[in-house]
Amino acid sequence: MNWRIPAAVALLVFLAWVGFEIGRAGGDIKIARVAADNKLFKGSIHGKRIDRRSWSLDFDTVTMSPDGQNATIAHVRDGRIHRINKPDVLMKADTVTVNTLSNDLAIAGPVTFTVQEGAGRTRTFQTTGARYNGGTHLLDLNHRATITEGSARIVVAKATVNFRTGEVSLGPIEGTKS
What we know:
Layout: H1 4-24, E1 38-48, E2 53-64, E3 70-81, E4 89-99, E5 104-118, E6 121-133, E7 138-141, E8 145-149, E9 152-156, E10 159-162, E11 168-170, E12 173-174
Antiparallel strand pairs: 1-2, 2-3, 3-4, 4-5, 5-6, 6-7, 6-8, 7-10, 8-9, 9-12, 10-11
């Protein structure tokens, strides 16, 4: 009986078909495209809270994360933190990272905040890093800060400014004795 030859051919065809299917398995899956950061040049970005505007920043460049949650802003020329029924706090900063969900700002590099206190008084805060919480209106200067008002100048290890109440909490004062 000559059934061994057709069985061997059938087995080879079956093995070839299995090998072909294994080889092409998974080949039809498309690789997802990775989203890249979006960049914008020279513009203005605004944050809003429920009760009104929160802040606005005029910038040279902004890079948005692919999910749109974070924006990294370079060279803030004219930043403003809005206060209810009071003049805006002016800000100039090197780099600001905005969390668009929480409305918070993380500021890196040299930064200057200028606060108009009324009756011609101006208070200036200079530091190298800060955080602004848009929900609580708290500015946390978590690095060494120089505070100037008129001819008075003070250097502190850290400071917290509540823009809602006007309270300023100072950390240890740093100074030298001549």
